[in-house]
Amino acid sequence: MGGGEIVLIIFVFLMLFGAKSIPEIARTLGKAMREFQKATNEIKREINESGGGIGGDLSDIKSTIQNVRSDIQEGIRKHTSDIQDGIKETTDSIQEGVKTHTGDVEQGLNDLKADVAQETKNIEKNIDSGSNI
What we know:
- It is a single chain.
- The chain is mainly alpha-helical.
- It has one domain (3-132).
- Helix content is 95%, strand content 0%.
- The protein has 2 helices and no strands.
- It is rod-shaped, with a radius of gyration of 52 Å.
């Protein structure tokens, strides 16, 4: 607000209320402002007091959440370790089975080769003996 606007407001005040009632109005406004300030301070004080309790509650909640988080992480680590152990055991078992069956297959192939070689000799022998007849 500019200076001219303030002068106009004061002039309107003087015209409406008169010079004698302005100090009384000012006192009333001052009292109202003090009461308003006291009420504001009281509200602030109550908020600060109750805010301390909320801070403690928030700290408790944060601590509980951190404990639960740690428990979950530990559980995940344990189960992950159990799963890894199970995978290793399964892998070892499969590898042992493959070794066993590979040996069996190789033995079977060697037996088959020996049988084929023997039959080939028998056939050659029969062919040779048949041509001499």
